[in-house]
């Protein structure tokens, strides 16, 4: 992602050469692990180092320049942000040496990095600029757009420029707002030619003194936009002008900072609808007279201005005066409906009266067409507040009170439950989307099972949970997911279960065994045929049968035995808790297994063979071609023993149409095992 980085430094050069001399600038450098990605056979970190080397020598001597890096020391650490070179004059050599040492490793905490850079440069007291270089989007649970608004609001004259490393259009939008909300540029390069242009622009930058002595003729420019707009609304601005890469449309407050003015918003024209010469901007939420300005990024001059009046608008919230605790509340709203606008549920008494946002729902993330949002409410009764929050400017435009009142929350179940059996619970409560009933071990507070109310019999307010297999005291909790709060508890005593397996002590290899069981009979319980010697003593389930899939009414299951003689186990397995509740031994004994028939047959003829073996449902006699599939072999004819004369233990086979050497095989289908073979010549 070489091109965007060079544009980042180019942007830095342009800003520095014309208007930032004696100002403070910090480069925030991407040291995340993705910088090891390659472009045209070279890693991005190598290309970035070269770009820094090319540009650092072109900067004004009196520019105070610093370097921050993120993600360069630890993997997975969102706090891996470091001020490597403090802003000062003459730091070019130190910055070059530092970037040469950066070894990409970690995540992309770009928002926290920009904030730290701004605070280091005392952005609330002095003019400051940050140039963020990133090849990815935020990965540390922060909102770059909101950060841009905050820094612009608090800063004396703060600007952030964001340089994207080949980001997609959607990814670019997620970081471009950080620049636009502070009046900076979002720059994305896409070709080698653009890189060359940027380097040329850096080298040929005309000193500000010469530009002042011989002012150039300003290019023509024009802006078309509404004469007025309601607070927080989005407007389309049509422009005519040079259309340069760094040109922007700005929203400017001419009365800010004692009449010096302040850039409030900006949108690079290349990030708008460039083909139709149009950008879309969100106006501020403070009524007043402002200016739209065409900013020529190459000449660093304002080419056109246009006044716009930001007028008040109706902003209101409609909701019930009170609602039961922890139940969702639906709020209808009137307001700007801006991209980051939200309805908030606010606790005015929290944090010693400072207040706290408890729940926040973006308007665009709900029923936007009908101007409705639905929010969780707190589990604690009291007086709260609903707020219309304009996200672009971090401003509350309207409020209304909401009282949360006490409501019944109960759980009812049998006082005792047998181990391993399901526990049926009737509930009364909010029934919110993420509410659940939990089974908790009373001894250690550990959650054993949980059932979301919406995933069970919601209409009848009933849930069924798996019961634990260990006897003892437990608790049922009504858990309100929105507030992560337990609203009700009830004790339940789990008693020991009677578990038994009745079966013969031994069974012939490959034959089926019928087992009579006693136990919980839960939905996922099964009887297993288990080989304790398999996998070097770890054991392996050879066969299993779910109780519900057999003769459940008579507590019987029938399952195959192993094909190999030896000592095995029958096990009662409780699926809900993944626990074996009982085992008993069973021996698999060898059977007489044989195939008797002609030694040779003619091609295409029918012939009969007799067999001895388990005679299980899926057992078969096969004619096997060992040469097929490159020596892997395949069955060219197969007849299930149950499809022949099972009493006489004979089957009829069809000889292959091609002569050759074949095999007759007795195949045990349950275990997919060949129990005996004998040669067959086909002539």
TrEMBL record:
It comes from the Bacteria. SMART domains: VWA (SM00327). InterPro entries: VWF_A (IPR002035), vWFA_dom_sf (IPR036465). Residues 24-206 form the VWFA domain. It comes from Roseibium album. Keywords: Signal. This is Mg-chelatase subunit ChlD. Gene3D superfamilies: von Willebrand factor, type A domain (3.40.50.410). Residues 1-21 form the signal peptide.
